[in-house]
Amino acid sequence: MLGIPLKEFREEAGISQRALGEGICDRGMVRACEEGRGEPEKLLVDALVQRTGKTIDKYFIRLDDEEYELAKKRTWIQIWISRGKFLKAEYAIREYQNLSGSDNPLHRQFIAFVKAKLLLGQGATLNERLEAVRSGLAETIDMETFSIKILKKRVFHLLELFLLQQYAVLLEEMGQEAEAVCWYKALLERFGHEKRGTADQQKLYPLVAYQLAGYYLRQGKEHEALPLLQHALNLLRYSKIQNAMYVMLWEREMTVRENLGDKVLAQEKRRFLRLKEFLGKNSEVWRRNYDPVYLEPNLCSVNAMLLDRRTAQGKTRENLAGLVCDPRTLERQEKNGSKPQKRTWKGLFERLGLSYLKYDGGIVAGEYGDHQKHEDMLQALDKNKIDQAWEKYDELIGKLDMGELTNRQFKKYWEAELSYQSGKISREERNAMLWEMLAWTMGQGSKEKHFSCWLTKHERKALVSLAWDCEGEEIDVLLPLMKKQLYRDFSIAGQMMTAGYYDELLYCIARGYFKKGNLLRAEQYITLAIQWRGIGFWGLSWDRLFFMRFRIERQELELWKKENSLESYKAAFQWLAFAWASAKENRDDAMCDFLKRYFKILYDRNRG
Description:
Shape: globular
Number of helices: 32
Radius of gyration: 25 Å
């Protein structure tokens, strides 16, 4: 029922059940989670998975209304703090503490984590902030024996590690530099030998590396600072998170290189200044993307999902419930957010053609090795190694249970995408396969009505694939569907919970309007995408967004002015320069070559 091979994660990491649950639950609860019994709360499962070194971000998680409200409130608290809305954050924290289900160590630890940030924003004393951090650590760690040695003795989840980061930084701010440096070194050593997922390394390593490199720089030990900064930059370069931290690391890294006599090329400095200039124009970026936050993406309410899907498929409560449960039970669940029983949840989801697993990682597999093959396939695709991706795909298809809808969606989606990317089928043939997959769960009839509901992982991927390079009449079909998805939850918290997907929708809508010649709408949506990318934590690469903005600016000039000097192209050129700086820093040679053509067009136009 849980959908996570926790036992395999734990055994691969060589951790005992007792050690895995230390400070957060007993051995019996760990065993129950491993066996898929019951419905353990989200923060507990997150912590257990994180302690095995795995990243929880990749999972699509279905929660009952009580847990979903807690997760949304956690997101809102961090949004208000990042925006400097401290009174709202304080009020949200009090609300959170009064919500049902929030009174246990992990929830109290989260409150301590955000309170420490809140106190910083309110200008509290260092001692007050340190007390908040220590109270958070005390929820899961024995503070009577607390020392730096703890980093060698036990496993940790992200909230504990975030608090330890804050603890070390506070020591330095309080003048205890020597002790802080010991903590920095121990934390980085810990991150270095752990087999922790890349997504979590990106949250943990850069801030500590930045602080320790600053110490080495002050001591004249540039040779020791440089590898720390370069590794942190490599972690963040392709991650699309913590934009301000990336710029800060890059600036410090250039300083270190110059101190070592390594001349920094003027071209690199211009790239740096271009990106810093853009971020500087969006000052909130510096507050939002400096240190890690406890993000929880890909969440949905089971109750809302049941109602969404039942309505989209045109089913009454009576013909959906049937032998699964009494129709009145379904009505209570949809209206009051009551938690479905395991048997009821499973039955209702199966009748709607959906996976009933609480944590859906994209495939339903009994072995951890299958999930690893899935990750290997995705990584091969990221590196454009199509043959290697096909190999992993074929291995998975031979093992997965195709009685599970999630696995059938996985098979259909990737069969279409891999065939298209390897040139075996046309775009039209791929699109037909994707529409066929969507029809399994979206039903027939009015597409706009169906796309107003929450989509599963592969349904989202199919919609984005269809929209990414659509042309002509396809645009008219897909624009309303994307807007239905975009506006079904337009709250900031909702956007944070759908990060990445939200960016892609904005970009595809902007591109659709651009292709239709509606430049005003295109500009509105690409501006939203750039703003979100600037203040968000996942999403598209900067270069693609900047380039679309350039194309819109350029097209507007072509339409309204017959004679255009290079000066009149200044605004458009700026976006092209931003795109170039980003592509060059991402080491995307293909994109750089592509952009060179546009620089040449502008140059030739001005010279002519």
